[in-house]
Design a protein that fits this description.
disordered N terminus; 18 helices; five-stranded antiparallel β-sheet
Length: 423
């Protein structure tokens, strides 16, 4: 299930005070909380702004596909006719799915529950890689059971699970990447309203999507410099290798097999291995393509340093309808939001902090915990509610000044997670 039109996209995005509207419906006096493009590509303040000039309105109309306005902070109470009534529309259930991650909580209990599922997936990913190295068939049934457990806890522990995708260890990139893509793919599938069967297949596709890389020449796969044309042709074979591997013994469901084969196809037809374009690929493949790229961009790879959450979404947005499916990019952007639980940020007073909760109602003022250092060890410290500072009208309240890449400045997400479970 994907968003097919502007009307459906708009209808799915109604909150009580925050409305996603077309830029043509903007009025002077509206408080702009979010734009369809990354904030670093604008000159606007991160905390949002009151629309006070026609020049700014014109700029937004020329550069953005949609905008979120905060009616609670707007001086102008006007809203489009679609939103004339108060409260949520009949699409409340759909909006709740989209807002699933931002409603989630990260605390000691959810982290502990999520860690059980994560470790099960971790064991399965390592088993998959070991199996491939040994030349024995992939145990699809066991992989499916691990994904089923993940689906069982998805709604309750989604925020904690996304938190765990921020754990990035360079020497375990392949296994962790497969786990992360499985988690994020299932979360996105839930937010898009997919069925339980399709959600589980999205997780299985995420877990298996890169198994073909185990058949590649490791010297080429781990090369730090630019690949030659011949080397790139070799790397491109991993999609076909993976498809052949997952269908060799116990066949996987068709959507999973097609996602493994086609997750590097592109809407403009320049992808591989078949050069398919547009709707020639199934939604499952288009979903895995976007999630795969997001996790790769936010990870340290041998040839490219990790980018921040904002930078990753910006790259995906810039390449929508060319490299990535537009609806899937929009869906992932809505699902993850401005920041996710586990996002490392620099505050306006220069301290580092970790985002704990970022519901829509908070705008750009999430709940965070400070990162503390003790020699070569880091841990989570004091909790800081940025929204409460605004409500208390504190002079010069602390805000988020910069969203940082995972692992910035050597910060070990695993140490921070351990400090959560031992509080």
């Amino acid at each position: 299930m994907t968003i097919q039109s502007w009307e459906e996209f708009q209808e799915r995005s109604i909150w009580e005070y925050e409305l996603k509207i077309h830029p043509a419906d903007l009025k002077l006096g509206h408080f702009v909380r979010q734009l369809s493009i990354p904030w670093e590509r604008t000159h606007f303040p991160l905390q949002g702004f009151m629309l006070e000039t026609f020049e700014r309105k014109k700029w937004i109309q020329e550069h953005c596909d949609w905008v979120v306005i905060d009616m609670d902070r707007s001086a102008n109470p006007w809203r489009p006719a679609t939103y004339a009534r108060h409260g949520l529309s009949s699409s409340e259930a759909g909006s709740a799915r989209v807002d699933l991650l931002r409603r989630g909580q990260v605390d000691q209990d959810t982290i502990r529950d999520a860690l059980k599922t994560y470790r099960r997936l971790d064991d399965q990913a390592e088993s998959l890689l070991a199996t491939i190295n040994d030349g024995t068939p992939i145990d699809i049934a066991e992989a499916s059971r691990a994904v089923g457990e993940l689906a069982d806890g998805m709604e309750k522990n989604i925020a904690a699970l996304v938190w765990l995708t921020r754990i990035k260890q360079k020497d375990r990139y392949t296994a962790q990447h497969c786990i992360n893509v499985a988690i994020l793919a299932m979360g996105l599938a839930v937010s898009l309203g997919w069925s339980r069967d399709d959600i589980e297949m999205a997780g299985l596709a995420g877990l298996l999507h890169d198994v073909g890389k185990m058949r590649l020449d490791l010297e080429i796969l781990n090369k730090t410099g630019r690949l030659t044309a011949e080397e790139f042709e070799h790397v491109k074979q991993h999609a076909q290798f993976g498809h052949d591997m997952v269908t060799a013994e116990t066949p996987v469901p068709f959507p999973v097999a097609m996602a493994v084969l086609c997750h590097h196809e592109r809407p403009d037809g320049t992808g591989y291995p078949k050069g398919l374009s547009g709707d020639q690929t199934i939604p499952m493949a288009r979903l895995i393509s976007v999630v795969d790229a997001y996790d790769a961009i936010t990870s340290n790879r041998v040839y490219d340093p990790a980018r921040s959450h904002h930078q990753a979404l910006g790259i995906l947005w810039k390449n929508r309808d060319r490299q990535f499916d537009k609806a899937m990019v929009e869906g992932l952007t809505q699902f993850l939001g401005w920041v996710t639980p586990g996002t490392l940020v620099r505050l306006s007073d220069h301290r580092l902090a970790m985002v704990m909760e970022a519901p829509s109602t908070r705008g750009f003022l999430p709940l965070v915990r400070l990162v503390e250092f003790n020699d070569d060890h880091c841990q989570l410290g004091e909790e800081l509610d940025l929204a409460r500072q605004r409500e208390a009208r504190i002079r010069n309240p602390v805000r988020i000044a910069e969203v940082l890449p995972d692992g910035h400045d050597g910060i070990d997400m695993r140490q921070l997670t351990d400090s959560m479970t031992t509080d």
